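User: Hi! I'm working on a homework problem where we have to compare a predicted structure to a textbook description. Could you give me the structure for the chain below?
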Amino acid sequence: MRRITGVARIVVAVAIIAAIIGQFAVSWSVVPDRGMFLVNFFSYFTILSNALAAVCVLVAAGFSFSRDLEPSWFTVARLCVATYMTTTFVVYNVLLRGISLDQGTTVPWSNEILHVWAPLLVLLDWILAPGRTRVSWSRYWSIAAFPIVWVVYSLVRGPIVDWYPYPFLDPAQDGGYVAVALYLIAIAAFILLVGAVLTVLTRTSPAGGPGRGPDGQDVPASQRATA
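Assistant: Happy to help. Predicted structure tokens:
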């Protein structure tokens, strides 16, 4: 089971990397200002979350080929990535599907992988894949770090270059900063809710398995699952 999971994780990571490169290559060939495009491209939450997911899934694949459970710090990293990817899926399909973003042109197959299939597969991996450890509630709050940094970066940079990665961040749209604040509050609440649910799953799902008891201490290796 663990080896099958490892192979599946490698396939998912390769698909994500191919989708990012595919969209970048097409956009690079048509945009007039490549310098601005390069920074803008890696300012999209979708691109950043998928890039993090590709790295995380590849590392997780390595653990899949061993009999050891993941280190607790890496399970927290996976929790963050699964939360961000789930948020990408929901925000895109609720707020952004059908809206043309400033990336030259949209590559349909890449768009679907990055916004739909990769998030769903990363979430499924979190729910079903064996080997993770429990996440303590004190570490649960780690999920807020990256979104906060990204929002601050986007809102500070936006007025300087007159560009925002998504329409709901642009105060020039209807509603101004009040609308932006409401969108961000709703998305932040969703991120915290998703993260909480995924944290609970580390305590109840069979995928968590043994490895760390309720007190957070390591379970001896002889008692760990070896499936």
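For your comparison, note the following. Confidence is low (pLDDT under 50) at residues 210-227. The radius of gyration is 19 Å. Good luck with the assignment!
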